[in-house]
Amino acid sequence: MERIVLQVDDATGRAYQNFSPDAKREFNQILSLFLKEVINDSEPDNDEAIFYKVCRKAEKNVLVQKLSTLMRNEE
After folding, report:
1. The dihedral formed by the CA atoms of 6, 37, 23 and 10, expressed in degrees to the nearest 10
2. How far apart are CA 6 and CA 31, in angstroms?
3. Measured torsion, CA atoms of residues 58, 64, 69, 72, in degrees rounded to the nearest 10
4. Cβ–Cβ under 8 Å, residues 61 and 29
5. Cα(27)–Cα(75) distance, integer angstroms
6. What are the pLDDT digits (tens) for 25-73?
7. CA atoms of 72 and 55, how far apart (whole Å)
8. pLDDT at residue 74 above 60?
9. What is each CA distance from 17 to 11, 26, 30, 33, in whole angstroms?
10. How far is Cα of residue 33 from the mean position of the Cα atoms in its chain?
11. What is the gyration radius of the CA atoms in the chain, in angstroms?
């Protein structure tokens, strides 16, 4: 995995730094999905479709992670 640095305003940076490790991990996954979709999108003007596609993928990933956690806890 490649690491990148994003420059954001002060309030956004402070809010991110206050996230829990789990929240940061989820946020980073969502942001990574979003960037991947924007970079690979053949129709760059279709921002709303990209946003909804990323949201669906993020929801699916979160559900898979939650199910995985539940399954591990039951073992």
Report:
1. 30
2. 11
3. -160
4. yes
5. 28
6. 888 888 887 788 777 765 656 667 777 777 777 777 776 676 566 556 6
7. 26
8. no
9. 10, 14, 16, 20
10. 6
11. 15
Does the structure show a pLDDT above 60 at 16? yes
Give the residue-averaged pLDDT of 12-21: 90
- The pLDDT value recorded for residue 36 is 82
Categorise residue 3: left if φ over 0, alpha if ψ from -120 to 50, beta otherwise.
beta
Which position has the token pair 């073992």? Answer: 75
For residue 12, CA distances in Å to 17, 31, 32 come to 9, 14, 17
Residue 10 has pLDDT above 70, yes or no: yes
Global pTM value: 0.57
Q: Rounded CA gap, 49 and 28, in Å?
A: 20
| Phi, psi for residue 7 in degrees, rounded to 5 | -95, 125
